[in-house]
Structure to design on (90 residues):
């Protein structure tokens, strides 16, 4: 095997920022931050969502948008449909 061709493969802690859940695994990711995990210091990689906080895995639905997509579309294009109906000679 050639020297210096493969990235460093090491233990890294991935932290879910929405649930603060930590997962220790091996990765080649480069990080600037470190964290303490089970008494040892590891590189820290932050992620937005993981299986610990994703609604599919947790069974919890989070309402992101209180207004429905169809209602939002109708409100946005309501003036266009009104002008199209008044200008149609048929």
């Amino acid at each position: 095997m050639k020297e210096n061709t493969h990235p460093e493969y090491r233990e890294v802690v991935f932290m879910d920022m929405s649930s603060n859940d930590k997962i220790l695994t091996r990765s080649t990711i480069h990080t600037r931050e470190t964290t303490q995990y089970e008494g040892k210091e590891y590189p820290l990689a932050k992620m937005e969502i993981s299986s610990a906080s994703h609604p599919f895995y947790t069974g919890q639905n989070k309402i992101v948008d209180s207004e429905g997509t169809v209602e939002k579309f109708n409100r946005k294009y309501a003036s266009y449909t009104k002008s199209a109906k008044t200008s149609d000679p048929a």
About this structure: Residues 78-87 form the longest helix (10 residues). The radius of gyration is 25 Å. Strands lie at 10-16, 22-27, 33-37, 40-47.
